[in-house]
């Protein structure tokens, strides 16, 4: 008797990643439909189930589920790198391109990119949980709750791409140095460089880089309590005004 189950002959990480790719391909076959014409509820003469079209978020959930499984696989790979690079195991020594130095132990190589991959997986799984809970208990047809599906969807994609295409710290440091050197040549600030100039330094740059360039943008990225970001400074000033009895 021949079994209907195909014997699993491959047990490496490549096999898991191959299944991840297959899930995304299969996902596209099911979600590649356009609900255009469904209107807000049932305002169309087209022969479609418009109520389901506007209330369904299966396409988001299925995609996020495929992303989450891939993230878990990438996290497991990251964990093995971190474990094997430890002093206790010593199975591998990460190259400079995928490690960073220690601030207190110069001889140490930290597999930081893999630790970040491991950490990002929690974010991707969290995005899936967000939309699952969002859709739980919603009645049929469109509900305004569903507008909250965009942020976790986009966040999941950004996180997965970052896990697959992340730039090591050492490389980032080099990129910044080359960008600054270019600014010196052109006698300009980083924020004044054109995107083509930045891409010539490294293709990792995208248009959103301008949200980070410049003194004001850099300072305002500090959002932790008591930090130097403008909003935090305003809160601290207001707090002291209240404590000192000074009217604003």
Any overview of this molecule?
The structure is a single chain. With 248 residues, the protein is mainly alpha-helical. The chain has three domains: 10-166, Fumarase/aspartase (Central domain) (Fumarase C, Chain A, domain 2), CATH 1.20.200; 167-213, Fumarase/aspartase (C-terminal domain) (Ribonucleotide Reductase Protein R1, domain 1); 216-248. It contains nine helices and two strands; from the N terminus they run αααββαααααα. A two-stranded antiparallel sheet has the order 1-2. The longest helix is centred in the N-terminal third of the chain and has 27 residues, at 58-84. The protein is globular, with a radius of gyration of 24 Å. Mean pLDDT is 83; it is low at 1-5 and 7-11.
Whole-number count of domains:
3
CATH class term of the largest domain: Mainly Alpha
Query: What proportion strand?
Result: under 5%
Number of strands: 2
Helix count from the secondary structure assignment: 9
Please list the strands of the largest sheet in the order they lie side by side.
Answer: 1-2
- Tell me the overall shape: globular
Here the CATH topology of the largest domain equals Fumarase C, Chain A, domain 2
Q: Helical content, roughly?
A: 55-70%
State the order of secondary-structure elements, H for helix, E for strand: HHHEEHHHHHH
Query: What is the CATH architecture annotation of the largest domain?
Result: Up-down Bundle
Radius of gyration of CA atoms, rounded to a whole number: 24 Å
Mean pLDDT: 83
């Amino acid at each position: 008797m021949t079994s209907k189950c195909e014997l699993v002959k491959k047990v490496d990480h490549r096999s898991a990643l191959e299944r991840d790719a297959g899930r995304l391909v299969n996902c596209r076959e099911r979600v590649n439909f356009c609900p255009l014409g469904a209107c807000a509820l049932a305002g169309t003469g087209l022969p479609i189930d418009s109520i389901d079209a506007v209330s369904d978020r299966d396409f988001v959930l299925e995609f996020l589920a495929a992303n989450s499984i891939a993230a878990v696989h990438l996290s497991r790979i990251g964990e093995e790198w971190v474990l094997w690079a430890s002093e206790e195991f010593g199975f591998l020594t990460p190259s400079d391109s995928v490690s960073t130095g220690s601030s207190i132990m110069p001889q140490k190589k930290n597999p930081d990119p893999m630790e970040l991959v491991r950490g990002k997986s929690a974010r991707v799984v969290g995005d899936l949980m967000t939309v699952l809970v969002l859709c739980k208990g919603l009645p049929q047809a469109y509900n305004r709750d569903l507008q909250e599906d965009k942020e976790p969807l986009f966040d999941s994609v950004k996180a997965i791409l970052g896990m697959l295409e992340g730039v090591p710290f050492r490389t980032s440091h080099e990129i910044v140095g080359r960008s600054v050197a270019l600014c010196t040549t052109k006698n300009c600030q980083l924020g004044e460089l054109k995107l083509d100039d930045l891409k010539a330094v490294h293709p990792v740059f995208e248009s959103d880089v301008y949200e980070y360039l410049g003194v004001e943008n850099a300072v305002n990225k500090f959002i932790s309590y008591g930090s130097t970001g403008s909003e935090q400074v305003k809160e601290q000033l207001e707090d002291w005004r209240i404590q000192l009895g000074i009217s604003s």
